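Table S2 (continued). Query chain:
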Amino acid sequence: MKSIYLISLFVLLSFFSGMAQGKKETPKTPKDTTTIKLLNEIVVTALRINIPLNEIPAAISVVTPRQLTSLTKTIAADDALRLVPGVRIDNGTGGSRVHVYVRGQGVLTESGFRGVGVFIDGISINNPGGFAPDLYDVDWETVKNVEVVKGLAASLYGAGSTGGIINITTKDGGDKPFNASLYTSAGSNGFWKVLGQIDGTQGNVNYRISYSHMQGTGYRIHQAYMGDNFSEKLTWTPSAKLKITQLLTYTSYFNQNSEGINLGRYDTVGHTAANTDAVRYNEFHKTQRLTGATTVKYDFARNQDITVKGFMRFNNYRETSNNGDDYKPYVNPGISAQYNLHFGSEKVFNHLSLGVDYQSMTMTEHMFAVPDGNTIDNNRVDSHWSEQSFDINTILINQIIRQKSTGLFLIDKVDLFKKLFATLNVRYDYVYNKLDSASQSDSKTFEKPTFRFGLAYDLAKAANIYGSIGTGFLVPTEDELYNNPLQYGGFNSLIKPSTSFGGEIGVRGEIGKNFYYDVTGFSIKSKDEFYRYSVPGRGNNTAFYGNMGESNRWGVEAFLSYSPLDFLKFDVAYTYSHFQYTAPDSVNGHWIPQCPEHMLTAEASVKFLKHFTLTLNTQYQSKWCIQVDDSIYNHFNENGIIRSSWVNGFTVFNANLNYGWKLGNLKGDLGFFCKNMFDEQYFGFTEPNNGPDYNSFQPAPGREFFVSLRLKL
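Corresponding output:
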């Protein structure tokens, strides 16, 4: 039946194409930046130096304004990065709380993600240990483009970038002295969002200021979320040699935590069920964060420049659960400096960069015990937005965690005969961790050099060949480090950094003016992979981390974009992932959890009747396993019922209809979006859990409808 519906939709698409073809004057659609521009015109900034795409020896995906503005909800990364192969994003809430994996890196973190470097206008959101807690500071409605670098990038940004880089650039102000815009969206499960923005250019100052509020009740019980986001960006260019950019963001995000459930609860209650503890203990997360940053770029000679970036981040985080009421405020300053020198001849030209990154973090953690569930049940206030927690005087955790990291790096790019481009990245990282509590103190230091070397050969417009080899360095997060399986308190002495070695080879190009492709094959061998396990008899303190031997991750990533007519466009992103452990013998051949073998996103869009755009989208993922533990790898016993340890894959279909118009100086567009139009019931997210009840499964939303309106003056 779904196939019939899908065929009907594409017949409808063809009908609209015919209508557009039959018109005497066909309005031209602005094409994707990856298809209208030549490869040497697409300049990528994520690699710390501005490099045309045809000179980059790495797999790069660029998310363009067209892909971003086709969103109707604009609140989370899973929609924004839907057409990036090699990236999997789990959204377990329907809000902005996500887990991000690049080539399988970082799949086993309990919250946030690690191994992926994330930058907003050049400022890192990863802490000194390389952990990124969330993407709450990003309002996707204000984003101009996103560059995703896949593969071993620790030699560029340190331990936090072993899996890759997500480089987010927000919009600048418009050319006029004053512009104003309004965006609003509303839809299923109590969702609504509103954003207001003013921007412009006054002399040598460009500015943009925005504020947004969004909220939703969620599709599961106890899953409400609410967020506020303020963003200010000001760029002052007093001369041709000096450019100063000042940034300020404030984020407040609250989300109830419905947690994972076991299959028995899913069978009896359904896909809206929450974990029983989640409701009883009013489990939630609350984040408040203020970040200020300044970037200064000075060209002090024709071929020399220096860039200095500094930031200060204040974060107040709280998490309630049946474990306790946990407060983790921290202060996180950082600074980086980079010197660039360009010299050579037409035959051999050199771009040399030297730099240093430094940041620190001081976190003061206090966790208060909570009473038994019956006491809370009898006094609980049922509200989507309740921040009530019945703390008692017992203090479970009282400690200070300090982190510092320093990275020294060198980048050398050599252009040979305008066809061959060689790039070498070398970096040394030093990461220091210290814990102080009333009972004891402990410290742990990690340090390692990393490198990446690559070649890009611009054979022809239709065949730009690239390849690289490199190493990775991934350190434990603070949670993985101070959850000590041997005793209460102190650092986990059993865990150590994970290291990687691998490479990739690919080809990208343009055939004619309408077809773009990029295909990459990669292989990564890792030692001391992180894994999650439980220790019997430790009560609520059950999540611990260690190193799981070795793994081999290899696969293929492909992106195709085809625009046979100005008003018709097709995009396809496909990823094949073969991620397995190779040691120890007890898990040899076992697949890494949460890593589907196949992922596919296909999208078609057509413009018709001048103002309308119809976009059809399908997303497919194959099955994946929830746990590497040999005792439950293929099945487990839940209350006498034999369950499969593999999660079924899914296929969902989405449709978006947009109407764009202009009335005098006022521009606008109205969008209608149907997500999961066939109401597929599936699990969108799982996490390893080898406890007795296997609360590992988080159901995904069913059919949802949204409407949005954009106005720009």
